[in-house]
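User: Here's a chain of 557 residues. Predict its fold as tokens.
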Amino acid sequence: MASENYLGNPRLKRADTKVEYTPEQVAEYIKCSEDPIYFILTYCKIVNIDKGLIMFPLWEFQKEMILAFEENRFVICKMPRQVGKTTTVAAYLLWKIVFNEEYSIAILANKDRQAREILGRIQLMFEHLPKWLQMGVTEWNKGNIKLENGSEILASATSSSAIRGTSQNMVYLDEFAFVPTNIQDEFFASVYPTISSGQSSKVLITSTPNGMNMFYRIWTESEEGRNAYARVDVHWSQIPGRDDAWKEQTISNTSEDQFRQEYECEFLGSSNTLIHPTKLRNMVYKNPIAQADGGLKIYEEPEPDTIYAIVVDTARGAGADYSAFIVVNVSTMPYRQVAAFRNNLISPLIYPNIIYGAAVKYNDALVLVETNDIGQQVADILHYDLEYDGVLVTANNGRTGQSLSGGFATTTHYGVKTSKQVKRIGCATLKTLVEADKFLIYDYDTIYELSRFSLKNTLKGNQSYEAEDGNDDMAMCCVLFAWLTTQPYLKEITNIDIRMQIYEQNEKMLEQQMLPFGLMSTGDDIHDEEVNEPLFDGGPRDDFWVAQKRGFFEGNF
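Assistant: Prediction complete.
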């Protein structure tokens, strides 16, 4: 009867439609309500690209996904492309709303269109259920479904306000690794606490990796037992028809890096990152031991008789770029990041007070302020208004560039400008420090930005290291710190010469590699003036130039 259809749709049953069940249907209904896998295999239909509308033939790993969803409150799935992960979740969500009363689900995806496409798959499955198995429909559109048992599904783009003020029994985050980083952060800061505060609410996350972002962080913390997420890890070889021949063909049609990320599910940065991807994958972040209001994260408390340096980057506080600084222990080798600050809303007028507090806490730390934009204002407030004596001074040496000064040069100013030369030296030195384990970085935001800090073409046709997308403020603090380690003035204060240490370490490695050849020197060898020249002669060819000549720094900076 037409009156039994929802808005004239013969595939949908309207609310309050009476159904007379046979004993067999009652038994079948109970069986479906107790076993989602049986329900999906028996009654859910999908559209196959080659065969059209077919029953959903679950693979074994898809069954394991469904069991993980049902048995755990928090589940994260790291999966290759085109393995049916979204369709599997859609079938499970359909089962939840059909056989539960007053059950509310939110589908959140990178884009609104993607979320609605997932909802469309659920609607297709629902329309092909037998009428006696359906719940009556009260709302049915591209953005949501609501059934007469009070259960509903909402589809929206992931944002900090998508489900604010609503009560959800389950939230599904699709391809979460591809949601912009700032939205990921906002979502987990503002919306996630209200979801996880319940006793039975669920959070399901599925994605292919996309660098070292929030998805990477949740997965890694789950591996280390630092959160409550259960993991589902699927390999491409678990999909029928995918073998070594398929792998070779896919790589030939794409690239090795793309295959490793999208099918091997490796958390890769770009192949053009300043820090080598292998090193980035092995960098382990820590949870801060304390956090202060505003964005200061502490990883180590200050130690007596220890010298610390703070490197500062300043933004305008308009919600785009971040005001950021890192605090580094420079008394011992390797250098260690002990604190970090990152905030994109703080006013440049208030920012100096945050820096001042951190500097005093860390034994009156040395402070290097980047002054390209409004950073000079921050440096001046620190020195003149707050009367902090630890603000470092740089001198302009003309063609030879800037150098850290003790304050006796005639052309000096507080802070340092990030010139091409400063950035080039800083990038080269940072690469060496990190890859040689001479600079240990513990902050997640810092590691993430370094994983996206890549060589890019500028508008002028040159190449420079900067963020692939998003921000690189923490990364640039590391670059400026690396430049700071090359300055003789810092070496005098800390009595650490990092280049000489790396040089000597490499020399020992070379000697060890040469030992099996049994070479002997008679003392009459050909004299090589270049080898015997002073490594740090203080002349126009500075120590960085000599280090480059020795071959310690590779790449185009």
